[in-house]
Amino acid sequence: DIQMTQSPSSLSASVGDRVSITCQASQDISNYLNWYQQKPGKAPKLLIYDASNLETGVPSRFSGSGSGTDFTFTISSLRPEDIATYYCQQYDVVPPRVTFGPGTKVDIK
Amino acid sequence: QVQLVQSGAEVKKPGVSVKVSCKASGDTFSDHYMHWVRQAPAQGLEWMGRINPKSGDTIHAHRFQGRVTMTRDTSISTAYMELGSLRSDDTAVYYCAREGGYDKVAFDLWGQGTMVTVSS
Predict the structure, then answer these.
(1) Which side of chain A, N or C, has fewer Cβ within a 10 Å radius?
(2) Please, what is the average pLDDT of chain B?
(3) Which chain A residues are Cβ-neighbours of B98 within 8 angstroms?
(4) Average pLDDT for residues A48-62, to the nearest whole number?
(5) How many CA atoms lie within 13 A of B59 on its CB side?
(6) A36: distance to nearest CA of chain B, Å?
(7) pLDDT-based confidence at A42, cuts 50/70/90?
(8) Do A1 and B62 touch (CB under 8 A)?
(9) Is A80 helix (H, G, I), strand (E, B) or coil?
(10) Contact A49 B106 (CB under 8 A)
């Protein structure tokens, strides 16, 4: 099975800062990489799909890039409402297998 | 408004099974794969498997093989996940999540979650 790693596991930044999270796959997953935001006590929310496509209704300060094994998720200007845990997810289509990264907790400094 | 509404919290004893439901409204139920994801307390997300509501075909994660059953009732737009031989480490929030489709291989709609507590 494909393994996913994320770094850092947590970070603390100031409002307005640029924040980046990296996700690495144990093998080439093309662009089958998605990013989710989860706030405490809530279900995850899709932000980015296919590595770089912004989900409808998601603010443009969120972005994603990468392909193959290395991916980056960026918040261009951190806002207080962005406090959450962010997960990357790979989706292996044949055979269907899904793996989530361990998550990155983002706090305000 | 498209939404997934899950059944309520459950408390179960070790060794028995639990069945969680996920009702889709405002959308064409059979057009999207439905996945199940769980999250143990203070832990990350774990994929359990998916069902094709149109055919009933299922794929499960290796670690749940033989213990999980995914079904659906298209007449009421509801998917079910039954987990058997419950253990204390099955205590978690269980989510259903809709896959967007061939052009969006991602989970674009989630249920609110169902807390399952396994305790003697």
Answers:
(1) C
(2) 95
(3) none
(4) 97
(5) 13
(6) 9
(7) very high
(8) yes
(9) helix
(10) yes
Is the bond preceding residue A95 a cis peptide, omega within 30 degrees?
yes
Upstream peptide bond of A8 is cis (omega within 30 degrees of 0): yes
| Amino acid identity, position B5 | V
Answer yes or no: are the C-beta atoms of B35 and B107 closer than 8 Å.
Answer: yes
Q: Which residues of A touch B59 (CB under 8 A)?
A: 95-97
Structure tokens at B50: 């998916």
d(CA A1, CA B113): 26
* Closest CB from A43, A93, A98 relative to B47: A98
Cβ-contact B38, B61 below 8 angstroms:
no
For A109, the token pair is: 């400094």
- Nearest to B24, CA basis, from B108, B111, B85: B111
CB atoms within 10 A of CB B43: 12
Q: Name the pLDDT band for B118 (thresholds 50, 70, 90).
A: very high
Residue A95 has pLDDT above 90, yes or no: no
Query: Measuring CA to CA, which residue among B49, B54, B58, B56 is closest to residue B96?
Result: B49
The token pair at A84 is 């959450």
Of B82, B11, B47, B1, the closest CA to residue A100 belongs to B47
